[in-house]
Structure formats: structure tokens, C-alpha cells
Amino acid sequence: MKTKPLYMETTVISPDRTAGEITSLLVASGARSIAMDYGERGKIIGMHFVLMVRGVPHPFKMPIRTEPVFQILNGRRKSWDRSASAEKDREQAERVAWRQLLRWVQVQMAMVDCGMAQAREVFAPYLLHPTGMTLFEYLEETRFKALPPPEAKEA
């Protein structure tokens, strides 16, 4: 059985170049500040940015999660080849994850540009909570207790 390829799996475009493209897109869409987050070995692991929405600044934090992509790429290999190919697969996972994020941001901004959605609507999971977590991370940590419980339906 043939394995379904990941979206953007064969990209050769560097994470740095893709982060630059995302930055340009966000600036063109009204971002007032953008900062890159770096991890070990100087690799970009996410972005912080502020978008103006109806004249109000909204801070967002967008992490890049390469580990799930790595697990898929490396997991497809024969067990004897996984260790030997791990570094190559990690590099490809970074390229793929960043390209996927770029495409996602492009689609979200296209929806905002034509009035189908608001920026804070599509970026809401990445809205920076006062705790320093994204809104999604905060809701996940609190087991979504900030949301009202679903109403029980009468039988």
C-alpha cells in the first residue's frame, strides 16, 4: 500500500526563507511588529506578531511544531535506517512544517482580505494570553474550563 504524501513534503525551501515570506505577508496585512523565536542551534521555532484589528493591537504567538512531521517522515523508514536518517528527516520536517504554515497563513489572510473572516477570528487559537501561552494552549491546559459547559438536551 502506498503511503499518502504530506502536503508540501518535497519542498527544498529553507525555514528562514519561508519565515521571511510569512513576515512579508503579515506586514502587508497590517502587522505592526514581528519577532522570531529561536531554539537550539539558532533554528527558528516560532513567531510573535501584533496585528491591528479595527484599530486595536492584538498580540499573537505562532509556534512551529516540527516533531509530528518528523515522526511521520522518519517513521516511514525501515527500523534499521531511522537513526541514520534522523538528522536529514528533522531538516526536511522543518522545511515542510514552515511551508505548511505559510500556506495556512496565506489562506487565512485571503479570507480576511475578502471579508469572509476577521483576523482575530482565524488567528484566535494563537492569540497571546496574559500567561504567555496561546489562547489554545491556555484552554487546553485548563481543559477548556473557560468555556461554558454544553447545554443538556431534553429527552
What's the topology here?
Elements: H1 15-28, E1 31-38, E2 44-53, E3 56-63, H2 67-75, H3 82-113, H4 119-122, H5 135-141
Antiparallel strand pairs: 1-2, 2-3
Helix pairs in contact: 1-3, 2-3
Tally of strands: 3
- How large a portion of the residues is in β-strands, by DSSP E? 15-25%
The main β sheet shows up as: 3 strands, antiparallel
What's the number of structural domains? 1
Low-confidence parts lasting 5 or more residues at pLDDT below 50? none
Helix/strand-derived category reads alpha+beta
Order of helices and strands: HEEEHHHH
State the end-to-end CA separation: 46 Å
Helix content: 40-55%
Mean pLDDT: 91
Strands side by side in the biggest sheet:
1-2-3
